């Protein structure tokens, strides 16, 4: 049995977290996403009214759970990864059958999705700053739901809710490993802050789903700086350094709004404003003020260059942002701007490359310049149950970045390399090593090798 593995959709990526023809959903769209897009077009002249239930959807020929997702008409997903499980027997099949039964018999009838997931990670660093732990063993658990309240003429309204938590397994949860190796963020982006964290927002589409508005407690990284292969820590690169530009100072689940407009089938413009003062366990309104707002606009262009005699899908994304925050080193407030270029390109049927470059002003971001690049591949050496990738990063860490890490050292240069190998062990479970190499001489880390392992389960 083969299964198609895509980067976690926009709904699940709130947790942490992409053609042979320009008229098609595009090279890189999963079969489920492609089918859902097709059904949205079919529904244009088939109003379904308030609370479309499973029976109505079934009568219209819609397969199970293809109601609109959080990413929009053309979701940016992982490059096509069709993996054959290493073992046909799945020990978690009784749980999978239970969840499938609950969805079909109960949740689908009221247009409610339920996506549970968990991940265990182990990391051991050969060198850390004084007082930091060398090893971390952590468990992340989460579930995401989307309740489609109405669906008419290709448009819809949904409530999106995500709940996540971390716990230590044999080691304390805190501190996270990133600052211990001089990284101002986290080298395990699967994790969220301590305690339960939530995303809760309303998602509304207009004009046959070509305009989408979200309002509520939102993670900006769900919609901005996405990438085909360097975005999903569950299945791809695990460090935040490769899931977004280190220069982007995205707030932590602040209250705000995001709008996406499909100008054409291949060009989407996004804009958003969120509370920049929210952090940690937050209601999203903590510190909200006109002088505490993070605003961003992004243009996302799909391109189809001919490579090896075949059209291959890629994306070129350009972002500009302004971050107004409480002054982290003094009284009052401060603000600053930045820009980011984000690209990905399918090079072959099973290979996609990416590149990011970002710049930001010193006072409002942990890095004022960062560039990263890498490549991911499925079926390496003909192993159809495997996926692998390698990426490198160079960043200039600001004084704010050092302060965020809790390090009393000057700003300096930061280097990182990550390699992962993921095996689809069974239908529900994947597992494999993640090895990272960090160098930050100013922070006292000449070279630290982080030996890691990641196992994820999803239903």
Q: Which fold name corresponds to the CATH topology?
A: Porin
- Total helices: the number is 6
Low-confidence stretches: 1-57, 60-79
Characterize the biggest β-sheet.
Answer: 16 strands, antiparallel, barrel
Textual characterization of the structure:
It is a single chain. With 459 residues, the protein is mainly β. The protein has one domain (3-458): Porin, CATH 2.40.160.10. It is 10% helix and 44% strand. It contains six helices and 20 strands. It has helices at 10-13, 31-42, 54-59, 93-107, 240-243, 399-405; strands at 3-5, 81-83, 115-125, 135-152, 155-168, 197-206, 211-218, 254-264, 267-275, 293-303, 306-307, 310-311, 314-326, 333-348, 351-360, 367-378, 386-397, 412-424, 429-440, 445-458. Strands 3-4-5-6-7-8-9-10-13-14-15-16-17-18-19-20 form a 16-stranded antiparallel barrel. Strands 1-2 form a two-stranded antiparallel ribbon. The longest helix has 15 residues, at 93-107. The chain is globular and about 55 Å long. The two termini are 16 Å apart. Residues 1-57 and 60-79 have low confidence and may be disordered.
């Amino acid at each position: 049995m083969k299964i198609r593995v895509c980067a976690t959709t926009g709904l699940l990526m709130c947790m942490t977290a992409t053609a042979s023809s320009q008229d098609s959903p595009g090279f890189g769209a999963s079969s489920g996403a492609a089918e859902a897009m097709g059904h949205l077009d079919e529904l244009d002249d088939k109003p379904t009214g308030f609370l479309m239930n499973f029976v109505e959807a079934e009568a219209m020929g819609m397969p199970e759970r293809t109601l609109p997702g959080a990413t929009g008409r053309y979701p940016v997903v992982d490059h096509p990864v069709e993996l054959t499980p290493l073992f046909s027997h799945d020990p978690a099949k009784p749980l999978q059958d239970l969840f499938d039964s609950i969805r079909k018999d109960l949740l689908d009838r009221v247009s409610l999705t339920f996506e549970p997931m968990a991940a265990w990670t182990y990391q051991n660093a050969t060198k850390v700053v004084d007082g930091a732990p060398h090893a971390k063993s952590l468990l992340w658990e989460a579930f995401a739901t989307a309740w489609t309240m109405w669906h008419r003429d290709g448009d819809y309204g949904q409530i999106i809710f995500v709940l996540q938590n971390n716990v230590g397994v044999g080691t304390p949860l805190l501190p996270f490993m990133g600052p211990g190796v001089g990284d101002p963020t986290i080298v395990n982006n699967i994790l969220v802050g301590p305690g339960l964290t939530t995303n809760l927002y309303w998602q509304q589409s207009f004009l046959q789903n070509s305009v989408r508005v979200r309002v509520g407690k939102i993670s900006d990284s769900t919609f901005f700086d996405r990438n085909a292969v360097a975005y999903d820590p569950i299945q791809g690169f695990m460090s935040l350094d490769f899931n977004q530009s280190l220069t982007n100072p995205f707030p932590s689940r602040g209250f705000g709004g995001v709008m996406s407009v499909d100008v054409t089938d291949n060009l989407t413009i996004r804009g958003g404003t969120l509370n920049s003062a929210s952090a940690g366990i937050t209601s999203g309104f903590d510190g909200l003020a006109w002088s505490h707002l993070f605003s961003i606009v992004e243009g996302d262009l799909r391109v189809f260059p001919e490579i090896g005699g075949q059209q291959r899908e890629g994306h070129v994304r350009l972002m500009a942002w302004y971050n107004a925050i409480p002054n982290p080193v003094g009284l009052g407030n401060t603000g600053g701007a930045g820009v980011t270029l984000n690209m990905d390109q399918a090079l072959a049927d099973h290979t996609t490359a990416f590149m990011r470059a970002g710049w930001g002003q010193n006072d409002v971001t942990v890095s004022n310049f960062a560039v990263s690049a890498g490549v991911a591949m499925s079926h390496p050496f003909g192993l159809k149950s495997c996926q692998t990738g390698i990426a490198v990063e160079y960043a200039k860490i600001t004084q704010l970045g050092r302060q965020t890490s809790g390090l009393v050292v000057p700003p300096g240069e930061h280097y990182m390399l990550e390699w992962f190998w993921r095996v689809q062990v069974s239908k529900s479970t994947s597992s494999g090593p993640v090895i990272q190499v960090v160098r930050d001489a100013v922070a006292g880390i000449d070279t630290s090798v982080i030996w890691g392992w990641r196992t994820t389960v999803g239903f």
